[in-house]
Amino acid sequence: MTTVNTYLYFNGDCEQAFNFYKSVFKKEFQFIGRYKDVPEAARQNFSNCKDDHIMHVRLPISNETTLMGADIIDTTNTDNNSAKYFSLYVSTESKEEADRLFRSLSEHGKIKLPMAEQFWGSYYGICLDQFGVNWKISFS
Q1: Contact 95, 111 (CB under 8 A)
Q2: Strands laid side by side in the 66-71 sheet
Q3: Which is nearest to 115 in space by CA: 134, 131, 98?
Q4: Domain annotation for the chain: domains and CATH numbers
Q5: Which residues of 108-121 are buried (b: 16+ CB within 10 A; e: fewer)?
Q6: Regarding beta strands 66-71 and 6-10, do their DSSP bridges make them parallel or antiparallel, or are they unpaired?
Q7: Less Cβ crowding at N or C end of the chain, within 10 Å?
Q8: What pLDDT is recorded for position 87?
Q9: 80-92 burial by CB neighbour count: b if 16+ within 10 A, else e?
């Protein structure tokens, strides 16, 4: 079976973001590694990353889905909203779980479309979290 998972890049706040996602999804990290653990020969590829920045983190969301991420420090990026061209779509097993995830993810963020019954038959909403990541939450 082929699976597709999401990999998010952050400009220094990956650990903060993933601790937030860990609390929202009520899951534990499968792996978390830091740049201090990268062999010295490879460190030149990540010259702007500090020892405590996240080199790779893996957070299983379900048996089929894993959220992954890293800090990739880009000193030339002046656009702080790197996630503006994609959304993470989460399908839940209940309306209550959809509401819980939406409330948690939108806290300190922005609600773009409140959770509501939609014309196509889904209970659905869109929010931007405090780290600039777009989330689409749905229960059908």
Answers
A1: no
A2: 6-10, 66-71, 54-60, 31-34
A3: 98
A4: 1-74 (3.30.720.100), 85-140 (3.10.180.10)
A5: ebeeeeebeeeeee
A6: parallel
A7: N
A8: 84
A9: eebbeeeebebeb
Alpha carbon distance 102, 12 (integer Å) = 25
Report helix, strand or coil for 110.
Answer: strand
Which residues are within 8 A (CB) of 132 and not within 5 positions of it... i.e. 6 or more apart?
80, 81, 82, 83, 84
Provide the pLDDT for residue 29. Answer: 98
Q: What is the pLDDT of residue 75?
A: 61
Straight-line distance from the first to the last Cα atom of the chain, in angstroms, rounded to the nearest whole number:
24
* 12 contacts 54 by C-beta, under 8 angstroms: no
Backbone angles phi, psi at 23, to 5 degrees: -75, -35
- Is 112 in contact with 127 (CB distance < 8 Å)? yes
pLDDT of the residue at 84: 55
Sequence-ordered list of residues with C-beta below 8 angstroms from that of 8, at least 6 positions apart, any chain: 14, 17, 67, 68, 69, 83, 133
Within 8 A by CB and 6+ apart from 81, the residues are: 132
Secondary structure letter of residue 80 according to DSSP: S
